[in-house]
Amino acid sequence: MSEYNYQYIKFFDDVRASDVGIVGGKNASLGELLSFGIPVPLGFAVTAKAFDYVLESNDILYDGVLITLKNYIQKQIEKISEELRKEDIKSIRTVDKICANIRTHIEQAKIPDSLADEILDAYHKLLDRIGEDTTFAIRSSATAEDLPDASFAGQQDTHLNISGDDAVLEYILRDMASVFTTRATAYRERAGFDHFDVKLSVGVQEMAGGLGGVKSSGVMFTEDPDSGNENVVVIRGTWGLGELIVQGVEKGDEFLVFKHAPKLRIISRSLVKKEKIMVFDTDKGGTITRPVKDERQMKYCLTDDQVLQLGKYAIKIRQHYGRRMDIEWALGNNDKIYIVQARPETVHSQKGDTEEIFYLLEDPTKLMDDGVAIQNTGTAIGRRIGYGKVKVIETINDAHLLEEGDILITEETNPDWTSYMQNLGGVITERGGPTCHAAIVSRELNIASIVGADNIVETVKQRIRDGDLVTITIDCSEGESRIWAKEVEYDYDTIEFANLPRTKTQVLVNLGIPKGALSAGKYPDGTGLARLEFIINDEIQIHPNALIDYEALLMRYDILLEQRKKVENIKKSELYYKDPFNEEIRKLKTTLDKIRDLTIGYDDKEEFYVDKLAEGIATIAAGVWKELPDGSISPCIVRLSDFKTNEYANLVGGWIYEADENNPMLGFRGASRYVSDDFQNAFILELRAIAKARSWGLINIVPMIPFCRTPEEAKNIEDIM
To answer: Which CATH number fits domain 354-499: 3.50.90.10, 3.40.50.620, 3.30.1490.100, 3.50.30.10?
Structure first.
């Protein structure tokens, strides 16, 4: 316990999870993490009692009468409650003005001398304890924050890279004021919290990595945040400070860690281009955002060992708290990993085994054929459907134009948008990933959402200008981001899976999309058919033979270029007008360029195919993993590739290898393809992928051979396997 006898200060070492009423949820969690060996940067909390002290010791002239700042705020809260009861999005503008006035008064308040003395004494003692010059985060911590049944995440402010006596005192007041941001005030109203029952503690915490700065940072979830699947830890990160992920500026690299293997295994890696990085501003303090150097943009922000260490911390935290957790992490430039926040996850923990299953009542294939689809590159958040009048709102200043049931189209959202989102039909953002603000709030508010849909703002604006777009349907029901340019009929069922009867016959599900398996695989007894075609078509996109022959194709391209030069040197001959090389050269160049782009980070192109196939298979197998009543693990039956020639031809490089067939359904497919000299090496890559996924602990994977015509084919397949 602390040797210091402070009235308004608690060092993190002395704080536990039960101290939420004293130091707020965030600070209480940090102290709890330290108590069981989780690496947390050191710090102290300015208690909620200090918050009251500031409000009660400052006076303000109101209607000619001198009253305390606390009484003034109470009068303003009555006005806020009246406005928010109107359930009119436009009333938020009035609330904005009231909240801004409250914050200004708090920021201009004087910290009583006795409190300021304690804060600065604790600050200097913390510096002595750290033993070197460093820099701090000033972090708000509300007493109703990070509760199991309500998430106040992002509602108050955090300030980074702060140092010096005056700056620490200034930003503590700013944090105290942030309890009355519009977003936090509206959230408390909606969640049923009395505004004055929620008080603010402020944490003063060393920045992870100290003055050396942060190499990378991000978030992780002890379960999949979209589906609630308990079999994986999901980790996202980017270079520098993790605010850019929360803001939606960067999607971040994603890693899935499978929990149930004899030792933790990474079963999926998703690399994204990281163009911006937030770092310390060494000149002015605070932070700045700058471009990422070209050579780092397409490199993972974590090593495999660092991912696995984070996975271990996630599981340890999950076990200690006994509930699903949402965790923030940072990797210092000193290569030390720190956990900087851990709070209860509040969506799936409240849903339990109750799921809303949404489904279209119209044929999606016909909708596609009719041109109703708006193509997009976004990520589906959850599996909901929602429709409404489309509203393109490009800045928060115009958010008051939103009306109940609208579909918001915008570049990105941040916590300032929260109060405007609660009555919407859905949200589509141009930036962001599964852990950005729009995604988190959409899950919590149960609204349909797509994030990271490149260029969607301009696409929708053009459709509106053309006069053919008034309403939009957001369709995430299949785990993919589908946008329909009209109101599409849909329905949903609410199912309590815990109450469904257990049948003697196993209930198995057919799956193809790996991330979709984390949702669809939670309740069935296993996978009756997992199809590789979806993984190959969506994740790999390249004909396996083009990867096997990559070096040979490069040589062929060089030879064709040389031949073309010879032809061009005899322009006057007949050969000039009958040049046979140009078309193939163009097609081959396009193919090689696409392969190069899709396989960044892989010198060995065969390894790319094996890894991505193994990751997709493993994700499906992890999605359905569970112990069945008889003690066995639910099976994942994986059908090896069964593309037909015309489908293989559509892959990158497929034109080189696939012939035209009159009846592809009965042609060169399945087992007959596997044993052929033209495809056997590609088949072996599939077997290597199965073996790799099983080596990660997914021993429930069972391969299935499709379209086996004769016993001889079966015998040949067995010999190859």
So the answer is: 3.50.30.10
Q: Phi and psi of 219, rounded to 5°?
A: -130, 160
Residue 578: predicted pLDDT? 55
C-alpha neighbours within 13 Å on the C-beta side of residue 370: 11
pTM of this structure: 0.87
Q: In whole angstroms, what is the distance from residue 40 CA to residue 576 CA?
A: 71
Asked whether residue 576 carries a pLDDT value surpassing 70, the answer given is no
Tell me the C-alpha to C-alpha distance, in Å, between residue 275 and each of 90, 244, 293, 425, 706.
36, 11, 8, 32, 43
Could you say which architecture CATH assigns to the domain 509-720?
A: Alpha-Beta Barrel (3.20)
Q: Give domain limits for the chain.
A: 9-207, 211-350, 354-499, 509-720
Answer whether residue 152 shows pLDDT above 50. no
Are 443 and 381 in contact by the 8 Å Cβ rule? The answer is: yes
- Ramachandran class of 357: left when φ > 0, alpha when ψ lies in -120 to 50, beta otherwise: beta
The confidence score (pLDDT) of residue 2 equals: 52
Q: Sorting pLDDT into bands at 50, 70 and 90, what band is 347?
A: confident
CA 253 from chain centre, in angstroms, equals 9
Beta strands per DSSP E along 2-104:
9-11, 43-46, 59-62, 65-68
Residue in 241, 310, 309 with CA at minimum distance from that of residue 276 = 241
- For the segment(s) 9-207, the CATH number from 3.30.1490.20, 3.60.15.10, 3.40.50.720, 3.40.140.10 is 3.30.1490.20
Cα separations (Å) of 671 from 528, 640, 675, 691?
19, 9, 6, 19
303: number of Cβ within 10 Å? 11
Strand pairing category for 509-511 and 527-531? parallel
Quick one: which of 143, 140, 118, 144 has its CA closest to 205? 140
Residue 357's CB is within 10 A of a number of other CB atoms, namely 14
Spatial CB neighbours of 164, under 8 Å, sequence gap ≥ 6: none
